[in-house]
Design goal:
single chain; alpha/beta; 8-stranded mixed beta sheet; globular
């Protein structure tokens, strides 16, 4: 209801204030995935005081959806404070939804998070081709998670595009998996070969739409898929921000690279851009879908 109120007033008064914030805790990661261009650049664990200040600033700005990212966020710690303490603190501060995005290679003992978004990039062989020999470890951690708050998080690229259905079947059979969220690969410099053509994106979106109609627990919005495959929504989305060590970007870091914003693969950026530009069909779809999983 509070998100709906924010959306209505944003549309009516043409506001550009954010509601969704992402904090990058570190760029340190224990993996070297083929598609990733932002890991282990500094390998710095950002200090708690900086992260706390960013959380307070976001809350003061009106942000109520918070995501913690890496690198690998489970690697983050500062003077005994861990990721779990950050999630608990964010909840106490008043954030309505607190999600964590992880590669899933660490124990998922985080029942306080609304969703733990675990990267699973296909069936075993294709996932391991992209992320190293991690598939079995990730599945084991999901099955042993402290709560049923896991969301599988797949970045669809040229290698794994045939595995959309396989990931949905995996989600369906594991009790702790609440839902699935898809993105397309965003072709950062050096990873362009993994990008999808418009035809390939259309094929994937058509298949995702069929899976949604088939009752699979997909967090993405069917009504937004035509805009996703054509990159036709108005971006950047001013209601989303990303913060890393005090630096702030509107929507995402790809906007700093010329032409990359037009190839953005983040479904949520398109979905929220459509909602906050007044698309009634997508707004209704978001309300219906999000009420199932949050």
């Amino acid at each position: 209801m509070r998100l709906s109120y924010f959306g209505i007033t944003t549309v009516l008064f043409h506001r550009k204030v954010p509601v969704i914030g992402s904090i990058i805790l570190t760029d340190r990661c224990n993996l070297s995935c083929l598609h990733c261009a932002v890991n282990n650049i500094t390998s710095e664990l950002y200090p708690y005081t900086r992260i706390r200040a960013d959380m307070e600033g976001m809350y003061a700005d009106g942000i109520r959806f918070l995501l913690f990212y890496g690198g690998e966020p489970f690697l983050w710690t500062d003077d005994g404070i861990t990721l779990r303490e950050l999630v608990i603190e964010a909840k106490k501060m008043g954030f309505l939804v607190v999600n964590v995005v992880t590669n899933g290679t660490f124990p998922l003992d985080l029942p306080e998070a609304d969703l733990i978004m675990v990267s699973l990039d296909g069936s075993r062989d294709r996932h391991n081709m992209i992320r190293g020999d991690t598939y079995d470890c990730i599945i084991k951690n999901i099955e042993e998670a402290a709560a049923d708050n896991v969301c599988l998080y797949m970045a669809i690229n040229h290698i794994n595009q045939e595995d959309v259905e396989a990931v949905c079947e995996t989600a369906k059979k594991i009790r702790n998996v609440k839902c699935i969220s898809f993105n397309f690969h965003t072709p950062y410099p050096g990873t362009e070969y993994l990008g999808l053509s418009r035809k390939e994106k259309k094929d994937c979106c058509d298949r995702i739409a069929r899976l949604i109609r088939g009752g699979y627990p997909i967090l993405n919005l069917k009504s937004a898929l035509p805009y996703v495959m054509n990159n036709s929504a108005k971006l950047p989305c001013y209601q989303c921000i990303v913060v890393e060590n005090g630096s702030r970007w509107t929507c995402g870091r790809c906007k700093d690279i010329e032409g990359l914003c037009k190839e953005c693969g983040f479904f949520f950026a398109t979905e929220f851009s459509l909602v906050f530009s007044g698309n009634i069909k997508v707004t209704a779809d978001m309300f219906k879908t999000y009420s199932k999983y949050f």
